[in-house]
Structures are given as C-alpha cells and as structure tokens.
Design goal:
The protein is α/β, with parallel strands linked by helices and 251 residues long. It is built from 11 helices and 12 strands. 35% of the residues lie in helices and 29% in strands. It starts with a strand and ends with a helix.
C-alpha cells in the first residue's frame, strides 16, 4: 500500500482544512519546506492539492506547485483545478507524475475521457463524497465538486461504474466528513468501493494512528487490497511520524 504524504496549498501556504471547510484552516508553513522535510524523512512520493484552484478553478498556486515538483526527487501527484486537457498537459509536461481530476470528471466527463486518452495510466479521479439522505429515506454517497463547496447529482457507486472502461491510474476516495478530523478512516465504505471497481483505490480521510494504516492495509475485497493511502494532518501535526507510516505501509 503506497503512502502519499499530503501537502494542501492555499494562498501559497501549506494548510489543512477540517472537513473541507475553508473557514477551518490550520497553517503549517511553506509548502516547499514541508515537501523537502517529508522527503528527508523517507517519503518516496507526495500528494499535492491546490485548494484555491480546486474551489475556484484556474491555477493560482501553479508556480509554487511546479517549483515543488522540480525541487524534490520523488514522484508527485497533483490535484486541484485540473478541469481541461490544457491544465492536465501543463502539469504532466512539467514533470508531475500523475494528476487528479475531480470536478471535471463529474461535470464534463468528456473532458476526462480526452485527458485519459492523451495520458493513459497517469490520471486519477477524485471521488469526494458525503453521506446524505436519499429520496427513499436511506443514505447515499453523494459526490462533491468545486473544492467540496458544492454537491453534485451523482452518487459514488454510479460514477465508479461509468469509470470502469477508462485507463486510469486509479481513484482517490475521500470521506469528506472524516477529512482532517483524525477520527479514523471509513473502513466499511472503502471495502465497499474495493468490491465495486477494478481500478486501483487510494484511500483518503481520517487517518490518525498507525493502527488506522494497519487496518487499511488489511482491507480486502475479492482478493484486492487498497493501492495507497493519503495522509495529511496526522503527519503534519506530529500525531504520527513519517517513519512509522512508511514502515507500516511498506512503500
């Protein structure tokens, strides 16, 4: 299970949000310094998100992101604001290993197809969801867009089915209500996702303890395990050391 230490960027700073709320922000300093610290501590890959771009589009932190990518000698996957072929190409041509497409995958699926056809195996789809009440009174996993500031009319399960024919690098599945809370990952939900898709699944949201990583590593459905896990606040706050995380994940 690959470990992806996370660096979220807002207004040029490394930050973490609580449940995706821009009003609930903790600042952790300079993104490049944090990236270099992660790599020095043993990280072999990084997950970077431009939060401003995710919410508003454009590329407000692009210079910082690309500076980080060029400064570290590990693969970096980048999300936030990748809403057309041009945005994906500019990142991948500049040395980004993989891009994460979220809003465009739901609002303009034809754009996702174009990006994947041009860059097969180097695109992940971000599936960020909340549990909401469905029309039948039950709960549904509603996907969010635009930096989690808006809901969509799509459910996680239906979109996973639509994505099956595409040559993706995987899907990043985030339970928004757990993200940044360090309350533990959604084990049951992630196991459910593993059983629904043949794509590699990267878990995100809620990881706090080494025991969380062990539990994620032990998830299996149909003989398949999680491909990776993204960890942010727990590493930045010191609740978990990167060395511990790398040891548990194994890579």
């Amino acid at each position: 299970m690959e470990l992806w230490p996370a660096i979220d960027i807002r207004a040029g700073k490394c930050v973490r949000l609580l449940k995706g709320e821009f009003s609930a922000e903790t600042v952790y300093g300079d993104p490049l310094e944090q990236a270099e610290a992660f790599v020095a501590a043993g990280a072999s890959r990084l997950h970077v998100v431009d939060l401003d771009a995710a919410r508003d589009g454009g590329s407000p932190n692009r210079e910082i992101v690309l500076g980080l990518v060029s400064a570290v000698a590990v693969p970096v996957q980048v999300g936030g604001g990748v809403r057309d072929v041009s945005a994906a190409t500019s990142l991948l041509d500049a040395g980004v290993a993989r891009v994460v497409v979220g809003t465009a995958a739901l609002e303009r699926p034809e754009v996702l197809v174009d990006i994947v056809e041009r860059w097969p195996g180097r695109v992940l789809v971000g599936l960020d969801h909340r549990l909401v009440a469905g029309p039948d009174g039950g709960l549904r996993r509603q996907l969010a867009v635009r930096g989690w500031t808006a809901g969509s009319d799509r459910d996680l399960e239906a979109v996973l089915q639509d994505l099956e024919p595409l040559e993706l690098a995987g899907v990043v599945v985030t339970d928004i209500e757990r993200d940044g809370t360090e309350k533990g990952p959604d084990l049951a939900g992630l196991e459910h996702v593993l059983g629904l898709t043949a794509h590699p699944v990267v878990a995100s949201g809620g990881v706090s303890l080494v025991t969380d990583l062990k539990a994620l590593g032990g998830l299996v459905s149909g003989g398949r395990h999680l491909a990776g896990v993204i960890v942010g606040r727990a590493l930045l706050s010191g609740a978990m050391s990167l060395k511990e995380a790398v040891t548990v994940c194994g890579r």
